[in-house]
Specification:
single chain, 234 residues, 69% helix, 0% strand
Length: 234
């Protein structure tokens, strides 16, 4: 077939990758990276947006993976990306957090979705949101902290019993505050091990995940300190 991929639309390339026809060993790889390069420049984004908004969970997950690999411009993807935060598939929700972290996308609406991700019952989504909060700018972290601590992201109660509703509201409040406190202490340079020891109520998975990102956290702290003209914390 024609090896000049510029002759094909992005939609055609994606279709040919998955239609089962043998087009050579490297076709799928080359065609996909052609699509990624276009999306990275903000070109022909509609096929990606259609995947992200598909009614099929498998297509939304594929679109979320493409999103993370291609890094299309945030200003062109904001409306489609924000929908991932409400997706029933946790994979899509954590890809939302990853895209926000990598792109710098932020707004009041994004803050509300991130606050919900901080309370997510999928611990990977929660840990990734804490990690985002650690590496965010001082201004963004201050805004996000205030939003979370004033109730942003709280799930509407499904309990008619006022006592049950009250219990879950209090549980959410404590969990939200704990997430912000973990991020704040990591931003101050405290170790994951130290915070873990003082917070036995936090699931160990959160700390395991944050520990795996310790080098990225250290680099973020060093960049922040250098930007502020101060020495890194301990």
């Amino acid at each position: 077939m024609n090896s000049d991929f510029s002759a094909y639309t992005t939609d055609d390339l994606l279709r040919m990758i998955y239609d089962g026809e043998d087009r050579g060993e490297n076709f799928a790889y080359d065609a996909l990276w052609t699509a990624f390069k276009r999306w990275r420049k903000g070109i022909d984004l509609e096929p990606l947006i259609q995947l992200l908004q598909s009614e099929k969970s498998s297509e939304r997950q594929r679109g979320a993976w493409y999103l993370d690999e291609a890094h299309p411009p945030a200003d062109l993807m904001a409306d489609a990306v924000i929908e991932l935060a409400d997706d029933p598939m946790s994979y899509c929700r954590w890809r939302f957090v990853a895209y926000v972290k990598n792109s710098g996308l932020y707004s009041d609406a994004i803050a509300d979705r991130l606050a919900a991700c901080l309370l997510d019952l999928d611990l990977y989504v929660r840990a990734q949101t804490i990690f985002w909060a650690v590496v965010a700018s001082d201004k963004t972290f201050a805004h996000f902290s205030e939003a979370v601590l004033t109730g942003a992201g709280s799930m509407l109660s499904k309990f008619r019993n006022p006592e049950s509703a009250g219990f879950w509201r209090e549980s959410e409040r404590k969990r939200a505050a704990r997430g912000i406190e973990i991020a704040r202490r990591l931003r101050a340079g405290e170790s994951v091990a130290s915070i873990r020891e003082s917070m036995p109520e936090e699931d160990s998975f959160s700390f395991d995940n944050l520990a795996s990102s310790s080098h990225a956290i250290k680099r973020a702290l060093e960049r922040r300190a250098a930007k502020a003209g101060a020495a890194p914390g301990p």
